[in-house]
Amino acid sequence: MAFIPHTEHDIREMLAVIGAPSIDALFDEIPAALRVQGLEGIPEAMSEMAIARLMSERARQDGRPLSFLGAGAYEHHIPSAVWAITTRGEFYSAYTPYQAEASQGTLQLIHEHQTMISSLTGMEVANASLYDGGSAVAEAALMAVRAHRKSKSLRILVPSTVNPNYRRVAVSTAGNQGLRFESVAYSRETGCIDPLALEALRGEDLAALVIQQPNFFGQLEDVDALTDWAHSAGMLVIAVVNPTSLAMLKPPGEWGTKGADICVGEGQPLGVPLSSGGPYFGFMTTRLEYVRAMPGRIVGRTVDLEGKRGYTLTLQAREQHIRRGKATSNICTNQGLLMTAATIYMSLLGPAGLAKVAESCMARTQQLQSALCRVRGVRAAFAGARFHESVLLLDRPAAAVLRSLEAQGILGGVDLSADYPELGPALLVCATETKTDDDIERFANALGVALQAARAA
Amino acid sequence: MNQILEKSIFEYSREGRGAAAQQPPALVGAGAAAAHEAQSALPAALRRRSKPLLPEVSELDVVRHFTRLSQLNFSIDTNFYPLGSCTMKYNPKACNQYAMLPEFLARHPLAPDSQGQGFLSCMVELQEMLEEVTGMKAVSLNPMAGAQGEFAGVAMIRAYHHARGDLARNEIIVPEAAHGTNPATATMCGCVVREIPVDAEGDVDIAALEKAVGPHTAGIMLTNPSTLGVFERKIQEVARIVHGAGGLLYYDGANLNAILGKVRPGDMGFDVIHMNLHKTFSTPHGGGGPGAGAVGVSARLEPFLPVPVVGREGEAYRWLTEVDRPQSIGRLSAFMGNAGVLLRAYIYMRMLGRSGMSQVGEFATLNANYLLARLRAAGFDLAYPTRRASHEFIITLRRQAKELNVTAMDVAKRLLDYGFHAPTTYFPLLVPECLLIEPTETESRETLDAFVEAMVAILAETETDAAKLKGAPWTMPVRRLDDVRAAKQLELTWKPVNSAA
Ligand SMILES: Cc1ncc(COP(=O)(O)O)c(C=O)c1O
User: Fold this and answer.
1) Are the Cβ atoms of B477 and A104 closer than 8 angstroms?
2) pLDDT at B500 over 70
3) Which among A419, A283, A275, A2 is positioned nearest to B350, based on CA atoms?
4) ipTM above 0.95, yes or no
5) What mean pLDDT, rounded, does chain B reach?
6) Domain residue spans in chain B?
7) Who is most buried in A53, A257, A305, B423, counting CB within 10 A?
8) Chain B neighbors of A362, CB-CB under 8 A
9) Residue finishing a domain among A292, A318, A344
C-alpha cells in the first residue's frame, strides 16, 4: 500500500470503533449495480526505484536540443535558490491560505509579489495569479467589459500582433458570454499595429484595445500613441507584457497620457521552467479604481487582535465562494507555487539584475538576427526596434528548413506559416541571455546547410 | 512552527546590493556590438525611466527571508491538514523529483512532437489511466484547475446542444450545496443557474429536480459524493430524469478520492467530468496552485474536447489540434495546460498501480468513518447523523453557537493551537456552523486519535473556558486577524514607512 500507513491491526480496531464488519461495508450506500470490479487498464504498481528508471529513460528520449524557440515561453537562467526554496514542503504542500494565522508565510509572499509586479508594470494593485498568460488575457477582456463605465460594448480589439493563441484562449473562454474579439491588421514594414487600420475603427462602440508589448513578432509597438488613441476613442487599454522586458521598457502604467487600465502577462520568464508549457502563471495588475472588478485572490495587510501586522485574503466578495454565480470569475485554485518561484526570482535578480537580463536578451537577439541574415536566402521581416524575438523570411518553406535544423540538433524557431500565411516562409526566432556566441554561430551554420539542402531538393 | 514574524523583503533592501552570481555576464565582442546596435535602435519614449520596486538584496538575504516565511506556514509536510473538499494527502517526493528531470524542465512547449516522445508517452498513458478510473471514453488534459475543467465541461455541453441545433438549452441545474465554482462556471459559459434543494438526508430533492428540468435544461452539475460528505444515492434516478429531459450530467470530480476504484462516474451515467488531479492524484497544492483539472467525456462529447489532446499514430504520439478536432471548444491555455503537474499525477498513478488505486477510496473512507465515529462518541453533532461518511463528513456547532456563543470559526482557530490545520469552515453554506472534515488515506490512526483528543479538549473548553476559543489562536505568529479592516483600509502593496501614500 504505497502511501497508506494502516496495519492489519489498525484496520481491525478502526472497523470495530465504526461498527462495520469490513471496509467494503462502508460503501453500502452505493447501489450494488454501480460497483466496479477491478481496474484492468491500470498497470501494476511500481516502486520508487522502478519509476525513477522509467522517468529517466523517458526524459532521455526527449533530449536537450539547442533551442531558439520563444513565442510566449522563454528559456532563462533560473537561480538554484528559486526552486530549492519553492519546493520546500511548507510552500509546496500548503493549501490556499484560507486560515490566515497558519499561512502567514504564503500570504506575506503574495503581498510581496503584488508589490513587485505592480511596480514592475507601473500599476497600483495586483492579484495573486491567474492560470497563464492566455487565460489572463481572457480574464482581462471580461474584466474590461465589467469595469467600463461608459460603454456596454462586448467588442474587444485584439490586433493581429497579439499572440494568436492568446486570442484563441480569449475566444473560447469569453465568447460564451457574448464577447467578440476583432482583429486589426499590422503593417508589413514595421510588424506593428497599422495605425490606419486602427483609425478606420474610430467612432465604433468598442470596450477595449489589447496591446501586446513586445508584440508577438518581438517588435515594439508605439504604446503611447496607441494608448492615447484608445482612450480618446472611449476604450479601455489592456496591456499584455513580458515581465523581463519591463526592466528596460516603459511600464504600462506610464503608457500615453493616462496609462493602461489593465495589465496582464505570462509570468513564466520569471524563474519558471519551460516544462512543455506549464505550469506557468498569469499575472494581472490594474488601477486601484478597478480593483473590485478584478478576478482572482488578493492579499491585504491588516492587524491582529493585539495590533500586530499580518496578512489575509481580502476583497473576497468578488470571488466564487462568496458570490457564486455573480462572481468576477470562476477561478479558485490559481498558480500560487509559480508565483512563489517568480517572487524569489525577482528578489534574486533585483532591478539591476533584471535589467541586465533584458539587455542581454535584446543584444543576443540582435546578434542572432545579424548572423542569420548573413546566410543566403534569409532576411529580416521587419524594421524598427525589437526585444528578444525576430521574424526572418526564408526563400524556402519553413517546415522543411526546421526539420533539417532538427536533424542537426537545433530547434530553429516557430513556423509562422499557419497563422501568418501572408508572410510566406517565415520563422519566429528568439535568443535570450542563455545563448552564447558559439550557439549563434552554430545556428547560422546549420541554417545555411538547411537552406542549401532545401534548394538542392 | 516559527512564531517570529519576518520583516518585508523590501526592508532588507540596500541600494546597490544584489545577487551578482545570478546576473548574466557582460557581453564582449560581437555580443557587445549587438548590444550597442539594439540599444541605439530603442527610442527614448519606449524606455523605462523609473527603477521598479524590486529588492536589492544578497542571495543569502533571499534564501533566509523566504525560508523564514515558509516556516510561518502549516503544510501537509508539517501538520495534519483535514481540510474538507481539498484532499490534503501526502504529496510523494518522487512525483516532484522525477517530474523535474532536466530534460522535462527544459522542453519548450513548441518543440516538435519528435522531440517529446518521452513526455508525450506519459501524457497518453495518463489520459488512458484517467479514462479507466473514471469510466469515460476520452480525456483532455488541458484544464489548469478544477474550475477550468468545469468550464470546459459546461462549454462542451453547450457546444453539444448547439451542434444539434438545440439552441434553447441554457440552464444549468446546481444543487444548493454545490461548490461556488459550479454556479460561477455556469455564468462564465453564458448559462443561467438554477439552484435546487437537497433533502433532509443530503440527497438531491427529486421532486424539485423534476420541476426544474425542461426544454431549457442544458445539464446538471453534481458532485458525488456531494460536498455534504455523503454519496448521492439517487444518482441513477437523477440521471434518468435529466437525460429524459434532454439534458446532460456533469460530474464535479473534486471528491473522486472517495470512490476511486469503487465506482466510476461513467458508470453512474455522467456525460462529462473533471478531475482535480491536485486532490485525488496528489499533486501539490502549492499554497494556492497549480492544479490540473483534466476532463473526461462520453463518446458523444469527444469531438468537443478542448485541444490539444495527445493521439497515438502507430508507434508515435502527437498533439491533435483544431485541425484534427474542428468541433473542439478550443484552447484554454496558451500551450497545453499544466504539463508538469500532469507528470506528477502520472508518476503517482504508476506508483499506486491497479491495487493501490482501489485502496485510495477504501482507506480515505475508513479514516473518515473512524473519525466520524469517534467524534460522535465524543459529543459532536453530525450534520447527517443517519448517513455513512464518504471520504469526509460534516459536524455542526449550531448547538454550541446558540448555547455558548462559540462558533465553528472559533473551534477552527483553536485547532491551530493544537497543531492541526482547521477543517473547511462555513462550506457548504447550507449547514450552519459547519466543519467539513477530510482526513485522507495517508494519515495514520495515531494522527487521527491525536486530532480527536484535541477536538475533545476544545469541546470541553467551550463550556469551561470559551475565552480560549474566542481569542484563538494564541500560538501562531499572529493572533486572529482583522478581515474587516483588511477590506476597508486596503493595503495591497508594501509602502516604505515614511512614504506619503
Ligand atoms: C467540490 C469542488 N468543486 C470544484 C472545486 C474547484 O477546483 P479548483 O480549485 O481546482 O478550481 C473545488 C475545490 O476547491 C471543490 O472542492
Assistant:
1) yes
2) no
3) A2
4) yes
5) 96
6) 135-352, 359-485
7) B423
8) 35, 38-39, 42
9) A344
